[in-house]
Amino acid sequence: MSLLDRKSHTRICTCMLGATLLACASSPGSTEGGSTGGSSTGDGETDTAATGSSTGDDSLSPTTTSGDGGTAGPTSSTSDGVTGTTGTTGTTTGDPDSTSDSGSTTSDGEEEPPSTTFDERLCTLFVDQFTGKDGNSGAAKDQALATIKAATGIVAAGDTVCVYPGDYGAFKNTAHGTADARIHYVSVERWQARVTAPTIPLQNVGDYVDIDGFEVTTTEESVGLGISNGDGKLANHCRIFNNHVYGFVAKTRGGSGGAGILSAGWVADKPYQGEDVEIFNNFVHDIGNPGENAGFVQGIYVSHPHAKVYNNIVYNVSGWGIHGWHNANYVTVSNNLTSNTNGIVLGNGDSPCGQITCEFTDYYVTNNILYDDRNGIQLYDGPNHLIANNNFYLTEPSGDNATTDDPQLVGYALDPGGDFHLGPMSPMIDAGSPEHAPAIDFEGKARPKGAAPDVGPYER
């Protein structure tokens, strides 16, 4: 286990860039001199987000799923099945997105490849660049809106906003769902609704919101931030999943910071105190300036308590593949794959430490593959930590039951054509820990299939 001494590492600063707070350094910093900063949404909104709560349970299941749900990975095929969520009743038809209180997982036709098409019967608002008009009601396919931005002006708790293939500009959700009526923004065909902007394409500052299945990139050299959750408002109980986020580089060298996916949990009077956010089944790559400014732009970054980061594929990142800092406690990082990144680091410090008591407790890092990363896994010392059953191929190992074997991926390549499934003889099959393992894999299939979970984002 690699444990960091708080006093021996340079500080992480907090930069204001536009309306977004960005992580500005690659490694954990001391609590001395931490920047507190301030944040504004830029639209004159006041904070209405609830503080929320988290159960802190071990399950990483996005509540109730079926084995044929979710979305396919970069190389998987489609089927004729349909996936989705009602957004109002808490039931599902296969999408890893539900508000059921059961927390259970069912398996139903799990050997079939998952569908990449959302069930249109679950849509309550429709967006179609080619057939829609922003003057329409959006309540039916033949009354579709033309832009996602228009949908954000009328969306309400319980709505499922179905976005059809097209190139869309930036959008920002400010509406709140509820525990029983989430707001769900979904690309009807996985990665075919493309959200682009020269700055920050996709922002959410609402509670109980899901961002599902979008392609998120930039039109030019940018601030280095793709999806931003909870900056200016806390944005609790949110889920960011099934997205393809890539191509964000830092326009300003030397400290602008950024991330492919950021969950900040930040408002001026409650800095980094958002919670209960899940980031899973995302494909994140080519973030930052590889070879330059290493460590200033992260793949996935969380800075608040009660975050779960699982089943993500992250590669070609200047900084850390997965990074937790500021007030990141009770964080679970399981069954991810990182490659050509600084690896995984979890700690806390800087703002809000000093304003509030920053614990460093309850970190669970299990079943991840770190494939030819520049560093391995680094954690600050503290109670209730677990680093176990991670695979470090061509990477410095740490933790319990660490392995350094070649995971024998089907087609390792650091491009969208790479196939990160485990090969039939992979030593990572059934080699994971059941503790904190997600109940689904990258494709939404039930886990485990064998005696124990597989290591990495796919369950063979």
Furnish the topology, listing elements before pairings.
Elements: E1 3-4, E2 14-17, E3 20-23, E4 125-127, H1 148-152, E5 160-163, E6 166-168, E7 171-173, E8 183-187, E9 193-197, E10 202-204, E11 209-212, E12 215-218, E13 225-231, E14 238-241, E15 244-248, E16 259-266, E17 277-280, E18 283-287, E19 298-302, E20 307-310, E21 313-317, E22 322-324, E23 331-334, E24 337-339, E25 344-346, E26 363-366, E27 369-371, E28 377-380, E29 386-388, E30 391-393, E31 409-411, E32 419-422
Parallel strand pairs: 1-28, 4-5, 5-8, 6-9, 7-10, 8-11, 9-12, 10-13, 11-14, 12-15, 13-16, 14-17, 15-18, 16-19, 17-20, 18-21, 19-22, 20-23, 21-24, 22-25, 23-26, 24-27, 25-28, 26-29, 27-30
Antiparallel strand pairs: 2-3, 31-32
List keywords for this structure.
460 residues, mainly beta, Pectate Lyase C-like, ten-stranded parallel sheet, nine-stranded parallel sheet, 28% strand, globular, disordered N terminus, Choice_anch_Q_dom
Task: Please describe what this structure looks like.
Residues 53-66 have a biased composition (Polar residues). Keywords: Signal. Residues 1-25 form the signal peptide. By secondary structure, the protein is mainly beta. The protein has a domain at 1-42 and 59-70 and 200-460: Pectate Lyase C-like. Helix content is 1%, strand content 28%. It has 1 helix and 32 strands. It has one helix spanning 148-152, and strands at residues 3-4, 14-17, 20-23, 125-127, 160-163, 166-168, 171-173, 183-187, 193-197, 202-204, 209-212, 215-218, 225-231, 238-241, 244-248, 259-266, 277-280, 283-287, 298-302, 307-310, 313-317, 322-324, 331-334, 337-339, 344-346, 363-366, 369-371, 377-380, 386-388, 391-393, 409-411, 419-422. A 10-stranded parallel β-sheet has the order 4-5-8-11-14-17-20-23-26-29, with no helix packed on it. Strands 1-28-25-22-19-16-13-10-7 form a 9-stranded parallel β-sheet. Strand 31 and strand 32 (419-422) form a beta hairpin. The chain is globular and about 60 Å long. The chain starts with a strand and ends in a 38-residue tail after the last strand.
